[in-house]
Amino acid sequence: MDKIQSDCPYPGCFFCVMKEANPSKRRASVLKFFRELPSQDDDGQVLPISGLWNTAMAHPNDPEFINLGIFECMAALIWKGLKNRRWLAHDQNIYIPYYAAHIIGSYTMNMEEFAERAVRAGVIPPLVELLRGRLTWVEQRVAVRALGHLATYPSTFPAVADHGEVLELAIQLASSSLEIVYSHFYQFVDRRLGYHCDLLTRGMGGVEMESRKAEEWASQLQCWSLQLINCFAFKPEFLHDICKADFLIKLPGMWGGLVNENSPAGVGLLRTICQSKVGRGHVANIPGTIDALCNIARSSDDWQYMAVDCLIWLVQDASTSHKVIDKVAPTLIDLANISTLGDYKKLGDTIVTVLQEFMQQSGNSRSTISAQPKAEIDELLRSKQSLKLEKSMPKEDLHIKQAAALVVKLEGNSMFSSGNIAGAAEKYSEALALCPMKSKKERVVLYSNRAQCYLLLQQPLAAISDATRALCLHSPVNRHAKSLWRRAQAYDMLGLAKESLLDAILFINECSQSNDPDLSLKQNKVPDYAERLVKKQMRAAWLFREAALKHGGVHCEGDASDAFGQEGDDSEWETASESDAENDARGEADDETEWKNDGHQEDFCEKS
């Protein structure tokens, strides 16, 4: 390659080439550079590759380098790193396979035309070798990312699928990625490879930043593996390979963590699986997966709607409904008053219709559903009928029902204050039976109050059910602070750390925006009880926790300080249900009441 600028010490310098003012000369020089680079052994090759990496991320839709052979060059460089370990160990060449695979992934993430060019350039075989783990987990991460982009497009998916081991490797990686990153990088600081640390932090941080970034990259490695599997899951012929019981049971727990909340992760893959009859058949046979989907459907997870989709499809399918209805019906009933969620505009109406159709189709075979969920479905259908009747009910009659519900509610508040928790719960139930269905704000309070009673009565499942109903009735959905806190405590009682954590964080967010003096953050300080619960659940839901337990990083439930790089007396980590739940509950029951009446609001109660 001709020297472009006489003052540059490196003949054929890529950066000098790019400064060429004449477009034709620049293109010819870049073309030559891409052709010759893989065969050269000069020092400093990583510099132009890192420059291309930056360009690919900043301008992934720019076709210039695509037309000049960048894919062929990157594929050749990956092969060179795999086959020539002496070259790989020289200078800074160890970085090159990572950058090359990342460049391929960046240029193929948006444009199907670019993906087709990449496949013709032969990028898939070297990417598959990286996916096998021929180098390290860092290269696996960018390889699975690139293959996931290539598998997304109809025209290039067959080329990925032709490599039969890709799906199996992706499943293995999704299942083991967190353990791999923990044991190969996170666990032993003194054994971390230097180039891994540099790639993670770009040379800008120390051990603490390396650890944080490692958790983020481990989550991405898992989530991108799931994304690749998801491309296969749309094809029925691959579902039997995907839907193995030991994999399906793990999927709901693959959630991306707080560091990668933008990925639907495991529940996203389950949703794809449940779109097909074959997939639903497999999922319905795994009770643990159904339980986990119910927990996600009731949670404040961003991907809640995906779990709801799965449950609805399972109930609508006559071949699976009888297997799941006893577990799924209570969850769907709790969600039956929700309005908008995800793409759903009238989700509650959809749920009622699905359950009603199930009961009609069951006909004489109602023995397929147990007595309790059957009674709950019947009660739900009656309540919806009551709502229709209320529309034609005289306003005076509605006012009488409202006033009666208020009286009973106040009786419940009094019992609650005197310590008769069981009696208060019964009164709130009576008030709910009297309260008009259209009086949503009052029903939110009643459900939330009864949830608090169930907490104190050590009935977390009932508390979760009532708190969920309150959150569904509230506007906006999932934003009633007290119900979020009560459900967070109930999840804590059941050991469901992730669900408890998400509710506790959302509770704090709601408090920061609340005008309620009982909830608003004083001096912008998070309440101690909420901070304690969040910290506890962050430990319990830590992405590397299972790997740390397996490899000796965490020895017991209360000995996680070293693994988290935190110090503290474990005795402070009380279960909220045993301490703060009681303190919160003993204060007073909620007494916020707003009734709509001819366009204005009347306050039918005062603080008791």
| C-alpha Rg (nearest Å) | 29 Å
Structural class: mainly alpha
Strand content: under 5%
Number of helices: 33
Assign a percent range to the helix content.
Answer: 55-70%
**Mind summarizing the main beta sheet?**
2 strands, antiparallel
Shape: elongated
Query: Spatial order of the strands in the main sheet?
Result: 1-2
Number of domains: 3
Runs in which pLDDT lies below 50 for 5 or more consecutive residues are 1-6, 555-587, 593-608
Average pLDDT: 87
Distance between the termini: 87 Å
Number of strands: 2
Q: In words, what does this structure look like?
A:
Residues 559-608 are annotated as: Disordered. This is ARM repeat N-terminal plant domain-containing protein. Residues 567-582 have a biased composition (Acidic residues). It holds the Pfam family ARM_7. Residues 583-608 have a biased composition (Basic and acidic residues). This protein has 608 residues and is mostly helical. The protein has three domains: 8-234, no CATH class; 240-366; 393-549, Alpha Horseshoe (Serine Threonine Protein Phosphatase 5, Tetratricopeptide repeat). It contains 33 helices and two strands. A two-stranded antiparallel ribbon has the order 1-2. A hairpin with a 2-residue loop joins strand 1 and strand 2 (600-602). Helix 5 (70-83) packs across helix 9 (124-131) and helix 14 runs parallel beside helix 17. It is elongated, with a radius of gyration of 29 Å. The termini are far apart.
